[in-house]
Amino acid sequence: MKGMTIIVKTIASWVKVLIFLFGIYIILFGHLTPGGGFAGGVILASSYVLLMLAFGREFVEKNLPLPLASKLDCLGAFLFALIAILGFVFGGAFFVNFLVEKYGQPLELLSAGTIPLSNIAIGIKVGASLFLVILVLSIFRPGQSGSEKE
Amino acid sequence: MAVFYILLLFIVIAAIIAVETQDLLSSVICVGAIGFGGSLMFLFLRAPDIAITQIVVEVLGLIILIRATIARDFTFITGDREFFGMVVSIVIIFAVGLAGMKVFETLPDFGTPIFTQVPEAASQTYTAEGLQKTGAANLVASVILDFRAYDTLGEATVLFTSIIGATVILRKKAKKLLEDLDE
User: Fold this and answer.
1) Do A118 and B145 touch (CB under 8 A)?
2) Stretch B168-175: mean pLDDT
3) Which chain B positions have a beta carbon within 8 Å of A113's beta carbon?
4) Of B174 and B153, which is predicted with more confidence?
5) Are residues B8 and B37 in the same domain?
6) Which of A9, A130, B4, B14 has the highest Cβ tally under 10 A?
7) Which residue of A has its CA nearest to B58?
8) Is residue A148 part of a domain?
9) Of A53, A77, A138, the CB nearest to B160
């Protein structure tokens, strides 16, 4: 799969940035507007999948290698668990929203305590893991011999 | 209300085509159309959270996943169906349909949430005190990340474990090792 025509490649390279930005917006404003970590993460992953469909698998693997995506996945899960444990340390129970009184008023961007932080962690995690699943599934082809490279 | 009936007709037609067609790819596209109709319904019912998730996961994710894996799973459905299996499925469909009609009589009208009719429902507390207690304007976020954060942790764990399993089983290095062993 070496990619599609130059029209598809050009449009994909423009649209990819917009989709990525929209995913970041959905994640960061998840506590104010509809959306959140899960939906935003899927949008982030879909921008990379669009690149994969247009340019081919090798191009995307060069941009976001499989080990890096795996590390991002672990980082997101670790951050989410860390927020929960910090709630235990500072608030006295697992998952206490210990930052809710510390900063910001409701309806501001910086508000709602740990909820935006959890949204960011889940967004990283979901985006990286969906990207990983699609990349791994597209690599693995039991019918063909795996010796097209090297 | 009329828009819901139009969407419902659209979904039913897409579902019938998805079941009846012989081609796997057009069947998948019809399932995507069902998801699209459902997400439009959620949008008209003022649940844009679920509409976004529905359209992203069901339409984009499903079609992209099928596109990524279609090279080995491209099958055409042929052959006659078994007689016994058909009788059993018809009986099950009738039983579920009768039970469903009983249940639907007790439901509130379409488009009215159930907590408007049950004063002691737990969601009353969330809508009344969610903003003061968590400071999040999006009540869905305040429920899934504060009141019910354990559920979200469980979901994230399930996703994490499944991704680890998929990467470990399907990665390139293991395939190379297996090939070296074969030689």
Assistant:
1) yes
2) 66
3) 134-135, 146
4) B153
5) yes
6) A130
7) A42
8) no
9) A77
Residue B40 lies in a domain: yes
Q: Do B175 and A146 touch (CB under 8 A)?
A: yes
Does A102 reside within a domain? yes
Q: Based on the domain organization, do B42 and B98 belong to the same domain?
A: no
Same-domain pairing of B52 and B106: no
Could you please report the per-residue DSSP string of B112-162? S-GGGT-TT-HHHHHHHHHHHHH--S-HHHHIIIIITHHHHHHHHHHHHHH
> Hey, of A33, A105, A118, A149, which one would you mutate to test binding to chain B, going by the most B CBs within 10 A of its CB?
A118
Which contacts (CB < 8 Å, 24+ apart) does range B44-51 have?
B44/B3, B44/B4, B44/B7, B45/B111, B48/A34, B49/A34, B49/A35, B49/A36, B49/A39, B49/B138, B49/B140, B51/A34
State the pLDDT at residue B94. 93
Model confidence over A65-95: pLDDT tens digits? Answer: 878 888 888 888 888 888 888 888 887 777 7
**Claim to verify: residue B75 and residue B104 sit in the same structural domain:** no
Structure tokens at B37: 């109709």
| pLDDT at residue A149 is higher than 50 | no
Chain B residue nearest residue A33, CA to CA: B138
Contacts of B60 in chain A (CB under 8 A): 42, 46
Which domain range does residue A126 map to? Answer: 6-139
pLDDT at B160 over 80: yes
Q: Residue B175 falls within a domain, yes or no?
A: no
Residue B161 lies in a domain: no
Domain containing B13 equals 1-79
Q: How many domains does chain B have?
A: 2
Q: Which of B49, B55, B63, B138 to mutate to test the interface with A (most CBs of A within 10 A)?
A: B138
Partners of residue B141 in chain A, C-beta under 8 Å: 30-31, 36, 112, 115, 119
Confidence of residue A146 (pLDDT cuts 50, 70, 90): very low
* Total domain count, chain A: 1
Q: Measured between alpha carbons, how far is B95 from B109 in angstroms, rounded to an integer?
A: 24
Nearest residue to B50 (alpha-carbon basis) of A54, A35, A18? A35
